């Protein structure tokens, strides 16, 4: 007798296709990273620098614990100015007038320095981290304009001179038009270089002490209008990503215990009903044991309540209450009753 395998394959292939699609969906639907965090694509290590971000207090007069009124300050050494910066967030200081930066963007500056009364931005806020080997890199761009011209503008200048030498001048008006086009404000903005910041972060597992700052920052130097800083912090060490849906050790233990209790109750009830043919409360597993425990608890409760009742104030017998308050009448009635009883006794004796 031959069995046809086509119906079996017809049932299995859709299941395999659905399993493959679900696995691909899981790969594509990876959880999005929070700002100021990064996951290593090679080792899977997770880095979170959000603890280094400083935020201004809600009330400047009342600075609560954990809030700061100043950003990180870094000595410029031989540069001639000190730097102020923050991690993945704008600086805490309130900036209004920054050289070469729009006033609307002045509140988004993450690093700057001051010379005299002028403040120069060296980068706008950025929360995207980059991994370069064993170090984390945080880059701030679009700061204040640089003083020196860019190499691109120098090359354009040399090419322009050569073009002027080789060009045939027909009329003076013809020569004025290209000059106006090249001197437009938009092209000037494209050629202007701006100050940038690169922060190299490395892991520091042994901080100096509990009162040490969150990060130790030093100025490495400036090269080609880019300011380089080195920062060491425990926050830059690799860790484990804690997803909000992940259970802790206590939650996992609780789930295991709940499953074990459900299996015990359901399995015991099925066994007592099908095998032992029990009905009612006797279907519960180990009914006699639980009944004994219940009776023990009930007896203990009765003993405790009776022992506590002894300390309550009790009644010392009963007393007859006179309705009219005349005690002599009550005495007379009792004497009459005694005489009647004595007379009855004498009659019975006769």
From TrEMBL:
Record keywords: Disulfide bond, Glycoprotein, Membrane, Signal, Transmembrane, Transmembrane helix, Transport
- The annotated region (Disordered) lies at 166-191
In the record, biological process GO terms are: vacuolar transport
Q: Where found in the cell? A: Endomembrane system
Signal peptide extent: 1-19
This protein's GO CC annotations = endosome membrane; Golgi membrane; late endosome
The membrane-spanning stretches of this chain are 251-271, 291-312
The record, for InterPro entries, names: Man-6-P_rcpt, Man6P_isomerase_rcpt-bd_dom_sf, MRH_dom
Q: Describe the location of the MRH domain by residue ranges.
A: 34-239
Q: Where is the composition biased (Basic and acidic residues)?
A: 177-191
- Principal localization? membrane
The protein in question is named MRH domain-containing protein
Report the source organism.
Answer: Venturia effusa
User: What taxonomic ancestry is recorded?
Assistant: Eukaryota, Fungi, Dikarya, Ascomycota, Pezizomycotina
């Amino acid at each position: 007798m031959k069995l046809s395998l086509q119906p079996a394959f017809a049932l299995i292939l859709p299941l395999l296709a659905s399993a493959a699609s679900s696995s691909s969906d899981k790969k594509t639907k990876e959880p999005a990273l929070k700002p100021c965090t990064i996951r290593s694509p090679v080792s899977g290590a997770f880095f979170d620098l959000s603890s280094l971000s400083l935020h201004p207090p809600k009330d400047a007069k009342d600075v609560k614990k954990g809030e700061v009124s100043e950003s990180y300050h870094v000595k410029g050494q031989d540069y001639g100015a000190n730097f102020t910066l923050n991690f993945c967030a704008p600086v805490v200081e309130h900036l209004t007038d920054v050289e070469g930066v729009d006033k609307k963007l002045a509140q988004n500056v993450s690093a700057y320095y001051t010379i005299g009364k002028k403040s120069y931005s060296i980068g706008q806020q950025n929360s995207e981290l980059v991994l370069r080997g064993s170090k984390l890199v945080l880059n701030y761009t679009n700061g204040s304009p640089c003083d020196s011209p860019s190499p691109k503008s120098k090359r354009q200048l040399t090419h322009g001179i050569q073009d002027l030498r080789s060009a045939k001048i027909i009329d003076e008006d013809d020569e004025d038009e290209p000059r106006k086009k090249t001197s437009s404000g938009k092209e000037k903005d494209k050629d202007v270089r701006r100050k940038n910041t690169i922060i190299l972060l490395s892991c520091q597992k042994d901080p100096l002490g509990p009162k040490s700052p969150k990060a130790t920052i030093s100025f490495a130097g400036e090269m080609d209008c880019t300011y380089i800083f080195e920062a060491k912090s425990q926050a830059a060490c690799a860790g484990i990503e804690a997803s909000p849906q992940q259970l802790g050790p206590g939650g996992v233990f609780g789930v295991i215990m709940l499953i074990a209790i459900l299996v015990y109750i359901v399995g015991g009830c099925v066994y007592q009903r099908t095998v032992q043919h029990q009905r009612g409360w006797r279907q519960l597993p180990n009914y006699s044991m639980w009944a004994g425990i219940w009776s023990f608890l009930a007896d203990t409760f009765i003993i405790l309540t009776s022992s506590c009742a002894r300390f309550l104030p009790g009644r010392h017998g009963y007393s007859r209450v006179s309705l009219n308050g005349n005690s002599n009448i009550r005495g007379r009635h009792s004497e009459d009753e005694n005489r009647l009883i004595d007379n009855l006794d004498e009659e019975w004796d006769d």
